[in-house]
Design goal:
The complex is a heterodimer.
Chain A (H helix, E strand, L loop, with lengths): L1 H16 L1 H38 L4 E6 L19 H9 L6 E16 L2 E10 L2 H5 L4 E4 L4 H5 L4 E4 L1 H7 L10 E4 L2 E9 L13 E5 H9 L6 E6 L5 H15 L10 E5 H44 L1 H9 L4 H38 L7 H27 L3 H6 L2
Parallel strand pairs in A: 3-8, 5-7
Antiparallel strand pairs in A: 1-9, 1-10, 2-3, 2-6, 2-9, 4-7, 5-8, 6-7
Helix pairs in contact in A: 1-11, 2-9, 2-11, 2-12, 9-11, 9-12, 11-12
Chain B lengths: L4 E13 L4 E13 L3 E5 L6 H8 L7 E6 L2 E2 L5 H11 E4 L11 H11 L4 H14 L15 H13 L5 E5 L7 H16 L3 E6 L2 H4 L4 E6 L2 E7 L14
Parallel strand pairs in B: 3-8, 3-9, 6-7, 7-8
Antiparallel strand pairs in B: 1-2, 1-4, 4-5, 9-10
Helix pairs in contact in B: 3-4, 3-5, 4-5, 5-6
The chains are: A alpha+beta, B alpha/beta.
Chain lengths: 408, 242
Amino acid sequence: MKEFFESITESIGTLTLNKMRTGLAILGIVIGIGSVIALISLGQATQQSVQSQIQSLGSNLLTVIPGATNSGGVRGAIGGGTTLTYDDAKAIQTSAQVTTVAAVDPEVSRRAQITAGNNNSNTQVIGATTAYAEVNNITMDSGTFITQQDVNSIAKVAVIGPQVVTNLFPNNSSPIGQTIRINKIAFRIVGITASKGGSGFANRDDIVVIPITTAQQQIFGIDYVTSIAVSAKTPDVMTTAQNQIGYLLLARHKLSDPTKADFSIFSQSDILSAASQTTGTFTALLSGVAAISLLVGGIGIMNIMLVTVNERTREIGLRKALGAKKKTITTQFLIEAIMLTFIGGIIGVILGITFSYGYSVMTRSLFVVSIPSVLLAFAVSAGIGILFGWYPAQRAANLQPIEALRYE
Amino acid sequence: MTTNITIQISNISKIYKTEAMETMALDNVSFAINKGEFVAIMGPSGSGKSTLMHILGALDTPTSGTYILDGENVENLTDDQLADIRNRKIGFIFQAFNLLPRTTVLKNVMLPMRYAEIPLEKREEIAKKYLEMVGLGHRMYHTSNQISGGQQQRVAIARALVMSPAILLADEPTGNIASAQAEEVMAIFQDINSQGHTIVMITHEPDIASHAKRIIHVKDGKIIKDEKNIRQKIAKHNKNIE
């Protein structure tokens, strides 16, 4: 054991002799390991926040959207279809065939530019009915939600999320009664929703809800809806509700073959798995890129080790003359290579964690460090040392002592 | 008195082959060296004395012939077995000293014992003893590039002695150092020889060779003369040398 530490300190001594070269040699590993750690952390944070947000929407929520899917995933232009109408939503609500539905909320949803005074924000504008709050578990912080009267009269009223308040009314925490403009059309604010937390694409705090009729006719100029949110009476009847709605809409759209349906019905778990799959794919893809940079870093290590072996030919010759066996020389140079990659790994892990922490602070998102990925990073960096240090170490071990001693 | 023979080489030849030609570096060389001898191998450059030194040092193997070193046949051995022979039986002293740069004198002297897997404490103890012997006890923690050439060669002598080898093999030991220092190195050689160590020294300088008890002359790969040195020069220790 003492002898092992002796080899370690000796190799550290050798590596510190040429700090510049050592630093450059490990840079590739630092970048590789750092980006792997950062990407895995970011990926996991995204996945966790997406999951918690989708779950916060409610476990008995079904979403009907235009366009077809198959079991492998989402197909077609989601939300881009025009096959769902307000009347479809009304039919789901009123049909005698559909017995398991509590509330139905047809929605028109797009991003639009919102202005208030000098402030502006690009925000999700949702045209909805009174059922929106119930279906999406929205509670009010202050004011009221839009009413049936607002929907019927195509009123220019808006309910805004707390994030919109922060963005557009930085100095006024209660802007009820104030005016915002959506695509230059003025709306009166009637209510502010309570915060649901979260961030990213499913941020339920950064929304503007207006009557669906106003959205269709005044803002977007369309007669279809982009989705219909349905809450089932209990989580247990989700499948029944999904089937009942499906058959009703097939009949309404005069389609006999369920495989040719021009709409899709998702439950929360469907969306959850699709979202996880997407972020998972992204993480895997980016990790793949990071892995390539690790490979390049490893080649850099090999290059430096070959130069080192060449430079120290005389030393190797001497060591062999004094009785060093092949194994001893191999071990010596392998330890050096592993020290290089391991130090690079440590610095990379620190940098990666720092980066993902900084990112989470900046974007006010979740910060996740996965311990397995850190351990894996150490193992991988040591492994790269062995893999790319092996050939140079073998070169050193196989030098003939007389040739090596003569080498100038 | 076979037990008294340290080196026995018989009919050793070494042929270097290149694509264009074959060079016979050693041509059927035989001799024996007894325990406690101080032998100088002399010859001009190209005479084959370096090749002979490599073979005696188990750094290279002969094309034909046998070599018995301290009772062990140095033939058909693997690289690792040769390394083991060098480690246990041969103490090398090179013309260019060949100390590890930027490493302390003590660590340099300890190095061969490390390859013999001697425990650290024991290594330090032995290394210090031999450093005292060559008069460098006070330089132990200097790095090898902080001391003079003559001192470096004395460190190398200490390093060659730590494994108590069967022979000390010195290749032009005074070739790179000043004459006063060279005298000191010869004085140390004569000391350790008088303590019973066998020394084989390769040199082309007659003055240095004259410190040995026996001189073997080599030319064109053959031994041309092998004689007892009746006028052995005795080197004096220089008290003022640093």
